[in-house]
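Notebook entry, structure prediction.
Reason for the run: the old model in the group folder had no record of what sequence produced it. Starting over properly, with the input documented here first.
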Amino acid sequence: MCERFEQRRGSPELRTTGFTVGFWRNRFIAEGVAGLGDEPRPGAPRQIGDEEIEQVVRLTLEKTPQGATHWSTRMLAARTGFSQSSISRIWRAFGLKPHRSESFQLSADPLLIDKVRDIVGLYLNPPDHAMVLAVDEKSQIQALSRSQPVLPLRVGQLERRTHDYNRHGVTSLFAALNVASGRVLGKCYPHHRAVEFLDFLKRIDAVVPAELELHLVLDNYGTHKAARVRQWLQKRPQYHLHFTPTHGSWLNQVERWFALLTQRQIKRGSHTSVRQLGTLSPNSSRCTTKILSPSSGPKAPIRSWLRLPVSLPPRWLHKTQVLIQEINDSGD
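New structure, fully documented this time:
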């Protein structure tokens, strides 16, 4: 470094100041390579050595306190004799968070890999002259209203609502997401049984052209495998069912749509009746369908919901792109 750079020319290339270059040059001239190492810094010496830190980490990972399931900083400080702040610094340094936990579920399905490849393959490369629908139900949606009016958001103050609420009944939402277009066909039912699921299948059958093959992605709920449902499907060979693995409902893309609906409409909404809940429009969630309540009556077939070999209007293309982007950014 000394031979190659002059002090004033070397500092821009090293992205540092001329003073720093000169400082380390003088250290190297005086002490050689050994002088480039770090020297003891000023201030009080460490009060907690490596052995004590190892003890704190081992206690956190391998032991539990008496009368509790996990350590707190104050409980571990009382056990080790260190300060609560020292325990906090050690935990932060090693990424330890005993107060937090996560849940998980391993699928015991022996056909897990085969089912994942089957469903993901449908999403990425759907068959020609076919439609792929992600079908599922969101059961027991409660129509809730707060016991007192919600106080709106104001400058410097959050929206406020009472902790208690009034119940006005429940409903179950059956929905089918067209994977290719991002559009959803849905209907609310008062119950969640095989009868309602069969009625929803008939509704799908009424709006899908007979020449298209239908691939339905479903979970393993009992209503999807009921005898009357199987009998109805046996008479319609164009239907192909693809079941998600056990504990693998996350593979069903309509679950992402349910999450958007819950986050943006249901969770903080106030609904005074099941009928009002059944007429929610996820358009405000930038989805593209209307949920039909049982009292809405029959509707005309939604041709735009289908994957047809025609050019889509620009507004549909935009909404589809927005939905796909939201699914990709599902962490919000």
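Summary: The first helix runs from residue 7 to 14.
The old model has been moved to the deprecated folder.
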